Amino acid sequence: MKEAKELAEIFPVIIDVIKKNSKNMMACEKEGITHTDFRILYNLYINSGRLVMKDLANRLGVTRGTLTTTIKRVITKKYCVRKQSDEDSRQTFICLTAKGMKLIDKEKDNLEKNLEHLFNKMTVAERKKILSAYKSIYEILIKYRDKL
User: Fold this and answer.
1) What are the phi and psi torsion angles at 36 (to 5°)?
2) 26-103, what's its fold?
3) What is the pTM of this model?
4) Contact, 78 vs 101, CB < 8 A?
5) Which of the listed residues 15, 32, 38, 139 has the most CB atoms within 10 Å of its CB?
6) Which of 37, 12, 14 is nearest to 27 (CA)?
7) What is the Cα 44 distance to its own chain's centre?
8) Residues 29-66: pLDDT tens digits?
9) Domain boundaries in the chain?
10) Nearest 10 degrees: CA dihedral of 134, 138, 139, 142?
11) DSSP-derived secondary structure for 86-136
């Protein structure tokens, strides 16, 4: 598919430019959090701080078995905990701790600062164009978030 090939060429450049213009080290890098760890924490963050393993695995596109190993790592680092459901004792939630919440908040703050650093090098027209493009991408992709 031609569009996929074009995007595969464009996307790494976008990531590279953002990383090269980042003046703040991301919080996760400082804490030794892997990309997979971050995806788990972020998915918990955007889902009121808790999900059952099945739902978390589906959101990440991995098996529960694969997820179990990573969950143990973030639990050991005290970024989340397991909690049994009050309504159904067979159901266990993975819950973000205050430490996990603080890490995600810090990561979001650093990302915002890094983007401000990059945007400050651009004209107002360029910033508006980029923001508009990303909003369009978001509006399309958000529809597929739970379907992938």
Assistant:
1) -65, -45
2) Arc Repressor Mutant, subunit A (1.10.10)
3) 0.77
4) no
5) 38
6) 37
7) 10
8) 778 888 889 889 999 999 999 999 999 998 888 888 88
9) 1-21+121-148, 26-103
10) 180
11) SS-TT-EEEEE-HHHHHHHHHHHHHHHHHHHHHHTTS-HHHHHHHHHHHHH
